């Protein structure tokens, strides 16, 4: 239950941050720009103080900010078009949304005036044994360096990902998505949310700026929030490990960088008032900017099986071996930028 959630906070010369034990989630974060302005780019879901949240899946109860997903997505019974197969590796617990660590309370490790560390142990029958997480503000900049370590229990292949979620204003197009170089854009092979799909399904395009909608019109999906009420996903494959969000009404950029050899795709989660049931209630507006080695959030069986993204040469899973710790590093920063 959320009453068990504990938090740690850390301040440094260029900001302050909060981390919670539930899901190991980072957020909110307040950054101090060189001109003295304070900006807070990470999203915090609006139901965090609602007593009714106790009925929700653990991952949703205090949804916020950024956290790791091992494995990324979840196995589920779903209808997939030709070329997509759920015949890859699966295991008990593969149906847990975004993995065990996203739904339990992490243990605190070394926490002092310069860093926060935490760890999450997995069930004995899980192919993963342990995750470690280190959150280290840059003493010289409005930036945070993060490290994730994964210790496998046995040989396995899993989709993995990071889940930064950014807040958006209510004005359509007020934030520009500025990805680094990438190869192509993929749309989800189905409906993310019944009745709330926007993009033409199971398609590919060369640019995020020209994506076809289900009504045949072309949408610039790089300008958010979108006008349409939708819940949908786009995957950018072959991306170079960088992305910026230009908050044009507020005059700053948030930047995310990661190791492209670990996460060769970026999943964009457009949560744009499309989900009407509790706790979303048609009010949730946020953008997930999620580095992944995965086929969307379709889970281990699809991501390690036959799927078009893997067939194109882009990894949708990572191989793990016992005794070999997987370590990946990434960075979140902000900077002043022009208004407009």
Please give the structural blueprint.
Blueprint: E1 7-12, E2 15-20, E3 26-32, E4 38-39, H1 58-61, E5 68-69, E6 107-111, E7 116-121, E8 128-137, E9 143-152, E10 156-158, E11 160-162, E12 165-167, E13 175-179, E14 184-187, E15 204-205, E16 211-212, E17 218-219, E18 223-224, E19 230-237, E20 242-247, E21 252-258, E22 265-272, E23 285-293, H2 300-303, H3 308-311, E24 318-320, E25 326-336
Antiparallel strand pairs: 1-2, 2-3, 3-4, 5-11, 6-7, 7-8, 8-9, 9-25, 10-24, 11-23, 12-23, 13-18, 13-20, 14-15, 14-19, 16-17, 19-22, 20-21, 21-25, 22-23
Structural description of this entry:
The chain has 340 residues and is mainly beta. The chain has a domain at 43-99 and 157-336: Beta-galactosidase, Chain A, domain 5. Helix content is 4%, strand content 39%. It has helices at 58-61, 300-303, 308-311; strands spanning 7-12, 15-20, 26-32, 38-39, 68-69, 107-111, 116-121, 128-137, 143-152, 156-158, 160-162, 165-167, 175-179, 184-187, 204-205, 211-212, 218-219, 223-224, 230-237, 242-247, 252-258, 265-272, 285-293, 318-320, 326-336. The strands form 5 sheets. Strands 6-7-8-9-25-21-20-13-18 form a 9-stranded antiparallel β-sheet, with no helix packed on it. Strand 3 (26-32) and strand 4 (38-39) form a beta hairpin. The longest helix is centred in the N-terminal third of the chain and has 4 residues, at 58-61.
Considering DSSP H and I runs of 4 or more, what fraction of the residues is helical? under 10%
Instruction: State the CATH architecture of one domain.
Output: Distorted Sandwich
Give the CATH topology of one domain.
Beta-galactosidase, Chain A, domain 5
- How much of the residues is beta strand, in percent? 35-45%
Structural class: mainly beta
Low-confidence stretches are none
Q: Look at the structure and give the mean pLDDT.
A: 96
Number of helices: 3
C-alpha geometry: globular
- Going across the major beta sheet, what is the strand order? 6-7-8-9-25-21-20-13-18
